Amino acid sequence: MSGGVDSTLSALLLKNAGYDVHAVFMRNWDPQDDASLGPDPCPASADFEDVQWVDFVKEYWNQVFERTLADYAQGITPNPDVLCNSEIKFGEFMDKVLSDEVVESIEKRGKDQRIWLATGHYARTRTLPSGETQLLRGLDRNKDQSYYLSMVSEQALRRTIFPVGHLPKPQVKAMVAKAGLERISNRPESMGICFVGKRRKFSTFLAQYIERSPGEAVDLDGRVIGQHKGLFAYTIGQAARIHHGPDKWFVLNKDMKHNRLICVNDSNHRKLFSNCVFARQFQWINGEPALVSRPDEEDQVLEGQIRYRQEAIPCTVQRHMDSYKVTFSSPIRAIAEGQNVVLWRDETCLGGGVIHSAFHEASSA
């Protein structure tokens, strides 16, 4: 439980449905590791006198945070929320709360007893006749969080319940308020990376752990237009905040070898758009689809997206050794190495991978 409306209503719905509900708060960050933040930036953490605490600070640091820092230091833009779900929430955490010992003790109470992990994510699951579990989008497309769950294994999803996945967010807040929990229903949205919060720029936070190496910012012709503060602090497509002449400058690329930030003076410069990506570390939730070996068939087109809440775009997928090539029907602006590409067939999430290159491929038509 995070203490917000989504996890609160999830627990309430399950309780009303007759489940034996046990609340667990997963602690992933020690505020002492970031003393400059001041008081704990996760205000909900003060409200857990009545729930069980499970400490995963070490696991989060080793399996998510250090990998995130290493990526940023190499000029990559990772998605730590996707990694946290696959490695910690539906990995280490699930293994602990649904351990063999726990499951056995529960199931001994009766042959019909089963134990599940429930969360407040806006997503749904569907059980196939084969017994496999599929991941579906949440019905509230504005809040759908299946993107962040795209690399969670089918085995983990099979043991998970998403009680609010079929509800729109306004109804969730109204139901919590109706239950007499107005204080919770009026809470602001929680942040994905809780320990950062809304207090500061993420680049300022990262600067506590990654050494700044200022260098030159240049245009496409190599002319120096200013100085950057450290390549890790910039993301492809963002405003570079470099004042040189009358133009505004936007990040196109990072030259890690020469410590240079490459910029263009048009937010919609053609070089900022790509229609193809190569992705590795692919997690197919229900196994690699057969369509990967025959991507040219018109009825085998999927939908893909590289950012949360981005509109899904028709695409095809081909396997290339240890990578997959995803080709979109229209170009996408500012794709960065390290981002996740997630694939759907209709409402079903097939899985996703980590982008290691993006480019524009001219049409053969």
TrEMBL record:
GO terms for biological process: mitochondrial tRNA wobble position uridine thiolation. Residues 204-263 form the tRNA-specific 2-thiouridylase MnmA-like central domain. The keyword RNA-binding applies. Residues 276-355 form the tRNA-specific 2-thiouridylase MnmA-like C-terminal domain. Keywords: ATP-binding, Disulfide bond, Nucleotide-binding, RNA-binding, Transferase, tRNA processing, tRNA-binding. It catalyses: 5-taurinomethyluridine(34) in tRNA + S-sulfanyl-L-cysteinyl-[protein] + AH2 + ATP = 5-taurinomethyl-2-thiouridine(34) in tRNA + L-cysteinyl-[protein] + A + AMP + diphosphate + H(+). GO terms for molecular function: ATP binding; tRNA binding; tRNA-uridine 2-sulfurtransferase activity. Its EC number is 2.8.1.14. CDD domains: MnmA_TRMU-like. One of its GO terms (cellular component) is mitochondrion. Pfam families: tRNA_Me_trans, tRNA_Me_trans_C, tRNA_Me_trans_M. InterPro entries: MnmA-like, MnmA-like_C, MnmA-like_central, MnmA-like_central_sf, Rossmann-like_a/b/a_fold. The keyword Glycoprotein does not apply. Belongs to the MnmA/TRMU family. Catalyzes the 2-thiolation of uridine at the wobble position (U34) of mitochondrial tRNA(Lys), tRNA(Glu) and tRNA(Gln). Required for the formation of 5-taurinomethyl-2-thiouridine (tm5s2U) of mitochondrial tRNA(Lys), tRNA(Glu), and tRNA(Gln) at the wobble position. ATP is required to activate the C2 atom of the wobble base. This is tRNA-5-taurinomethyluridine 2-sulfurtransferase. The lineage of its organism: Eukaryota, Fungi, Fungi incertae sedis, Mucoromycota, Mucoromycotina.
